[in-house]
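> Could you send the F-box domain-containing protein prediction when you get a chance?

Sure thing. Input:
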Amino acid sequence: MVRSAIVLPELTEAVANYLEQVDLANCVQVCKAWSEVFTPLLYHHVQVLTSSHGMFRAKTPWEALQKHSSHVRTITVTTGEFPSLELWGSDCRNLTALYLGPLQTVFQRSLWCSRLMVLIANNPSIHTLKVYLYRDLARDILHQYKALKHLPALKNLLLLKDPSTRGSYWSDVAFQEILEGGHRLENLVCDFQYGGTTSLDTTMEETIHHQMWTEIKSLQVYDQIGSRAIELAQRCPNLTRLNVKLMDYYNKHCSILQQMTRHFQSGHLSRLEHLEISGLDVGSRGGGGGGGGGSVVESTIRDFLRVCASTTALKTFCLDGFYVSDELLTELWRYHAGSLENLSIMEKKGLQSSNVLQALSSCPNLRLFKGRLSRESLYLEDLVRSPWICKDLRVLHLVSSDRIELDDEMFASVIESPADTSSWPRSNIAWQRQVWAQIGALKNLETLHLSIHNEHCEIEIFSFSNGGMEHILGLKRLTELGIPEEGKESFMNNQDKQDLMQRRPRLRILYI
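Output:
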């Protein structure tokens, strides 16, 4: 290709998305034509990542930034000293996204915030603001400096917990700023705990006189007893995506889903298409899902799946950290199997093999399936009793749950197991070949992660040598294959790996 022939902005921008900053800088230096094309892309995302005071006295990089500041679209600042407007340059007025934190320390908080507000005032086009909570800094930005009122184009607000901060609570005054500015948002993430409380008996109908957030489609919140998250959810009648995190074990109700279930039962339409729920393993604490908090949360989820199905069908359903009973899955298949496109169930104990088969044989439109499999009750024959009908599946993760603690005698028997599979029962090998055949029939598969174990078997129960090569080579769209780090030699020997890499050089193989 002639170096000066790059004229398509769509092509160069697509290429730039896959290049590191140093590579973009090299492209700029190739020739004048390349410089004109790649220079704006080089300055699209500016990161200020150090808290060293010396960086502000180093003129050379800042002079280059000032010269091209009109090209800057995204700024990330994780330094304790916020750069002044003079350093950014007077033409830095086209920002679309601003990311603040995580921070280790902040020098002169008032100066940091005031400089930030000058940058915000010069960039009313910002539509995405991500702030990590550093002590009271984020609260000051929202409440004292009224940042949301200076961002008329804001659509995405992400308020995240700073990993260096222990306990992140927001006062009522900061929460009020979110309520007043939320009507413009399309996506809200509140990854923190609330200092204020609200009544759990408040219904959505009681908030009608408040300004509703009709534009917001995506909401991520913590749900804890007395949580103000309910008030946020009540203001969003057009939600299509909800991500709920249970804050602690003492939340035995999943109150947001309870309120939304009542709302739908009273005749209001559900537009929800994507539901994600994560939290502690409340089911196991509650007696394996048979009592305590886990059973109440599960009952709430089951009711919600049933009620919302009257007006909408879920495309995404994700559960992380919960005990999942057969009853809950039965409700999921009954009401949403035909619409599910993304399904992820990563419970701590792991799914039964029959549950995995239900997902793969009941959801024709499935594009992504991630399942954590039980080591205690995983049987290959259960995976092949019915054909997998999800022919458009793009991502498949089947990974065994964490290994159960073994005593010394059992552990010795495992690590001394033979690497070859000649001693395996013929029936086991036949089932393996059938599983590989099911995988090989998924012609649209792009990502495949496999790590299948059985705790009661002295050797791995699933091997690449029993049909894997033939069917993996038949998956022409496959770009990533994840294989187990644990027992990797018994899953795929070095010769098979070398052969596969030679025959599919573009296939990325990684250990999981």
